[in-house]
Write a structure and sequence with these properties.
This protein is mainly alpha-helical and 792 residues long. The strands form 2 sheets. The protein has a 6-stranded mixed β-sheet with strand order 6-7-5-4-2-9. Helix 2 packs antiparallel against helix 4, helix 4 runs antiparallel to helix 5 and helix 13 runs antiparallel to helix 14. The longest helix has 91 residues. The two termini are 30 Å apart.
């Protein structure tokens, strides 16, 4: 029963050229592709965001530097105040008298402390070329204070004033570092510079005029110093108005409109207008010194206000720039995160659509399409089998387009399946038509052979007629196999119940080597009429397989018993060559599931016929290894068992009776045998039917004609004819039940000695006796289950 396996062809591997045409993106996943698509704009966005954040950070650093420079300018104002107080104590008699003794030394200590604090603060400011130059100039100027203080007593007032101005000017110049750094319509740095210069010149004028008024002498040197200070003060005042903010300009104009400022300006004008080097006290206006003091105080107050506002503005701008940098960084991060989230969402949406299409396509390929093809193949589909449930949905995107393409493929596949189903139906109809025609012809041939047998007196010719009878019966079985292939019934289902013992005898009559079949135990069990034909055909196929693949000198035994759940078990055992484990497993799989009906089944036709008939009635057929040979278990379900009626009881048989039949034999199935198992089990894999010893029939006994063993184990393509056909055979001793078919038994109705001469030298039978028996057989054959002769 060995059967070739269909080889699964592997899909041809893509050539190197085809693989080389696959793009790099074609090897990437969808999320990776989405990220690759977004990579360039993301990189550009990150770069632009980085530039913006970097610019904001640069702005913060610049404003922080300006903020520190403004703070340095404020500390420079304190240093300027201390330097000018120290100078006044050296050349201004009124300031010296007001401060008292020891004031100069204390003031010099304060000046030195303020200078050191200024230099320390300047060194903490981030480095820049211009600021570094100013700091170096300030450090050099402050470094001259020690020598200046030592030479102050020997120098004139104008010289001391000029020396202190050389120290003051680099400190005042720090304000120029604040110029042009704000996006404003005015220059706050230059404004603070000119305001500080105006204040310093006003302070210098007071000291010089006070020194001249104390001595009553205005030397040319002193006059030039006063006029120079006055000129610088006027230029500084004019520049401040041009570069200060409107609010600061308005405050300055209010300041210079003060009567005290007018008195100070009149004193400067009077000192510069005297024609000689004498400066009488009457020339100066009353209260001029206090007027200068008031003007200096107002200018210092305005300078402090403007400087502090710059400090606050730069601090605010620094904080704003830092906040802007943080905001830009957060916005850039949010944009990047939003882009990544959008890419993730879009990729997930694409993946969801792809996975939905994939699952729909897999469902179509693995579930819907096979179900539709199965329904169409089995003839249950009809027009409904051509309906295709859409997987495209109602969308208009590319996924819906692909889904519509899948629907089109599904419809086309179903259409092709429907065409194949119609083709199979047509082929099945052709099979049925050919089978019925062949059966009709074979039936006519059998009737003709029967007539010839009845009228033939020659034993040798009669033996040849019986051989023709066998061949014709086998031809009819081939026709019945065509019916099984076409999915048709073997014949009318109106046959009444039949005893299992009669069904087995009828199946034995289908086997060419019927002499080798030995029945041990058959209980009085009846089969339901609708299953009789198929069960007899199934048993005949198994018997034919058993005798064909076992030695002609061995017997094939048939045993049966009833299980507690009313199922009936038949065991057919041979002592043949058996099957290996792989062949046995494949054969059982085909019996249980059935193979695909294609060209490869031609070598497994016996298995297909048996499996088809078994599945039709829920019969379990299992092949098991035996030692030696194969054991076949046939379990008939309880639904097929019927209670035998009157007249159905089988005739008493010996414990081991060889049933003979002259029916044609099928080409066998592959044959195996099971080991003994417990009788109480209901599992086919473990069930064992108790068998009785079989008396061996001598090889030379009359009627024993073992055929030559056929080579190989090809799966059979013939099938036994059902018991309702006219060529069914059974022993004469067995009574015929009202619902069972009459049996044709080889040599049962022959005249005594009719075949003795042909069989091995026995005495010739009486021709009249042969004719009598054949006439009885002919009368019995005419009584078919339908009340007349059998039909195909």
């Amino acid at each position: 029963m060995s059967s070739p396996f269909r080889s699964r062809r592997r899909a041809p591997r893509a050539s190197g050229a085809a693989r080389s045409r696959t793009s790099v993106l074609g090897r990437l996943s969808v999320p990776t592709r989405m990220l690759a698509v977004l990579m360039i704009p993301l990189i550009a966005a990150v770069v632009l965001a980085g530039l913006r954040v970097g610019d904001s950070l640069d702005q913060r650093d610049r404003f922080d530097r300006l903020h520190r420079t403004a703070q340095l300018s404020q500390s420079g104002t304190a240093l300027l105040d201390n330097l000018q107080r120290e100078r006044d104590l050296l050349i201004d008699p009124q300031a010296r008298n007001a401060a008292g003794s020891g004031a100069l030394q204390s003031q010099q200590e304060r000046t030195s402390g303020a200078a050191q604090a200024f230099i320390d603060a300047a060194r903490k400011i981030p480095s820049s070329n211009r600021l570094d130059q100013h700091i170096q100039a300030i450090e050099g100027a402050v470094g001259t204070l020690s020598a200046l203080r030592q030479q102050a007593d020997k120098a004139s007032a104008a010289q001391v004033n000029s020396a202190y101005l050389r120290v003051l000017m680099p400190i005042i110049g720090v304000n120029n570092e604040l110029a042009g750094d704000l996006d404003q319509s005015y220059s706050p740095g230059w404004a603070t510079y000119t305001l500080a210069l105006d204040t310093a010149m006003t302070w210098s004028e007071r000291a010089l005029i006070s020194n001249a008024a104390d001595t009553g002498t205005l030397s040319n040197e002193l006059r030039a110093a006063v006029l120079s200070s006055q000129r610088l003060q006027e230029i500084a005042a004019q520049e401040f108005r041009l570069n200060a903010s409107p609010a600061d300009t308005a405050a300055y104009n209010r300041l210079v409109g003060n009567p005290a400022v007018a008195a100070a300006n009149e004193a400067v004008k009077a000192a510069g207008g005297v024609p000689t080097d004498k400066l009488p006290a009457s020339v100066l206006p009353a209260g001029w010194y206090q007027a200068f003091t008031q003007k200096i105080s107002d200018l210092q107050q305005l300078q402090t206000t403007v400087g502090q506002r710059l400090v606050d503005d730069f601090a605010r701008h620094s904080d704003e720039a830092q906040d802007q940098a943080y905001n830009d960084l957060v916005v850039a991060a949010l944009i990047l995160a939003a882009a990544l989230l959008l890419a993730h969402y879009v990729s997930r949406s694409i993946l969801r659509g792809l996975r939905s299409l994939e699952s729909s396509a897999v469902e179509v390929a693995e579930t819907r399409l096979p179900a539709a093809m199965k329904a169409l193949t089995s003839g249950r589909g009809g027009d409904a089998g051509l309906q295709v449930a859409s997987v495209a949905g109602g969308g208009r995107d590319e996924f819906a387009a692909v889904g519509r393409a899948v629907d089109q493929l599904h419809r086309e596949a179903v259409r092709l399946a429907a065409g194949q189903a119609r083709l199979r139906e047509n082929v099945g109809a052709i099979f049925r038509n050919l089978a019925h025609r062949n059966q009709s012809l074979v039936q006519r041939q059998l009737r003709l052979i029967t007539d010839l047998e009845r009228e033939e007196p020659d034993p040798q010719q009669l033996a040849r007629l019986f051989q023709l009878d066998h061949l014709a019966t086998r031809m009819r079985r081939n026709s019945e196999n065509l019916l099984v292939l076409a999915g048709a019934e073997l014949g009318s289902r109106t046959v009444g119940p039949m005893l299992l013992h009669d069904a087995v005898r009828s199946a034995i009559s289908e086997v060419e080597q019927y002499q080798r079949v030995v029945v041990h135990t058959l209980p009085e069990t009846a089969l339901r009429g609708e299953a009789v034909r198929d069960v007899v055909h199934l048993i005949a196929e198994l018997l034919e397989n058993a005798v064909s693949f076992s030695s002609p000198h061995t017997d094939v035994t048939v045993d049966s018993q009833r299980l507690p759940d009313r199922r009936q078990v038949l065991e057919i055992c041979d002592r043949g060559i058996g099957m290996d484990a792989a062949q046995l497993a494949e054969a059982n799989r085909i019996l249980a599931e059935g193979p695909q009906l294609d060209a490869g089944i031609s070598e497994q036709l016996g298995l297909y016929v048996v499996g088809t008939l078994a599945r039709r009635h829920g019969i379990s057929v299992t092949l098991r290894p035996s030692s030696p040979g194969i054991s076949t278990l046939v379990i008939l379900p309880a639904e097929l068992i019927d209670t035998p009626g009157t007249g159905h009881a089988p005739a008493p048989q010996p414990a081991s009776t060889p049933y003979a039949a002259d029916g044609p034999s099928p080409r066998p199935l592959p044959r195996p045998t099971p080991p003994p198992v417990a009788a109480a089990s209901t599992d086919p894999a473990t069930l064992r039917i108790p068998t009785l010893p079989v008396p061996a029939e001598p090889a030379g006994a009359p009627g024993h004609h073992p055929p030559a063993q056929r080579p190989g184990r090809a799966v059979g393509t013939d099938a036994a004819h059902p018991p309702g056909h006219a060529h069914d055979r059974a022993p004469d001793e067995a009574p015929v039940s009202p619902t069972s078919l009459p049996r044709r038994v080889p040599r049962a109705h022959l005249m005594p000695g009719a075949l003795d001469g042909a069989g091995g030298g026995s005495a010739a039978r009486d021709p009249e006796r042969v004719r009598s028996r054949l006439s009885g057989f002919q009368n019995g054959s005419a009584q078919g289950p339908d009340g007349g002769r059998d039909h195909v």
